[in-house]
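Morning F.,

Quick status update on the modeling queue. The single chain you submitted on Monday has been processed. Sequence for confirmation:
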Amino acid sequence: MTAPASRRWVSLTVVAETFELDVTWLEEVALVGLLGEVDRSGEVPAIEVRMLDRVARIHGLHTYQGVDLAGIALWLEVHGG
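Structure tokens below.
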């Protein structure tokens, strides 16, 4: 998928560095669809900037609450993301 020019994108590498996350884990989160549309047109996949709050929420649920990705997906569905 090529990133639409009207949206702002940030690479998963930059997101991982910003939140001090493992980029492999972040790629897995994106792969299961928890980060919305992923632009794979460049060397590194990218997500929309508007998903950064969601990254923080997912990270908190996973790291501090011990919720796995399937549980996080359910939580996001119930609580509206």
